[in-house]
């Protein structure tokens, strides 16, 4: 068996950030872990998003000032993993995922303000592509350009971002549930699948992207 050389085995590289889920014994253990993470983040002057639930602590590391993952995120991720290991708390890197909604439209600028108002989130211009984002990091809704066309039966599709290591299992589960593979032409960046009624969804990863 080859040695695992992944420098951050606890962390899933998903869109716009490093995600981790730490499995805690109970709420008190989770709160103590969050407190330790917060102290480390303050010392590093780099602040993650932390979500505390009974039995889990979810972490998102992302450098908002540059719009992506930096060495600061990698260093803090490594320290967080050390803090968790010191407390015998394990991570579940295959569990975190990011869900985006994509809306096909020939003119995103025309409808983006409506969706911004409806969702109570901000419009961001990502190199010419408009997105509706919460907290400046996670896209709630993004607009996919299409040529003008009659209203199709499906305007929305789901983009589900997963750890590249978990993509195969996620696809296999979808196929086992009656789905079909529409295209793997752009794998491992994304796979297009459809349910039994022809509605499409994509399993997406950061692999194979610039």
TrEMBL record:
**Residue ranges the record marks as coiled coil:** none
Q: What is the lineage of its organism?
A: Bacteria, Bacillati, Actinomycetota, Actinomycetes, Mycobacteriales
Instruction: Give the top-rank taxon of the lineage listed in the UniProt record for this protein.
Output: Bacteria
Identify a single GO molecular function assigned to this protein: 4-alpha-hydroxytetrahydrobiopterin dehydratase activity
Q: What is its EC number?
A: 4.2.1.96
The record lists the catalysed reaction(s) as:
(4aS,6R)-4a-hydroxy-L-erythro-5,6,7,8-tetrahydrobiopterin = (6R)-L-erythro-6,7-dihydrobiopterin + H2O
Ranges of residues in domain Glyoxalase-like: 102-204
Organism per entry: Tsukamurella spumae
Family to which the UniProt record says this protein belongs: Belongs to the pterin-4-alpha-carbinolamine dehydratase family.
**Protein name per Swiss-Prot or TrEMBL:** Putative pterin-4-alpha-carbinolamine dehydratase
Mind listing the UniProt keywords for this protein, alphabetically? Answer: Lyase
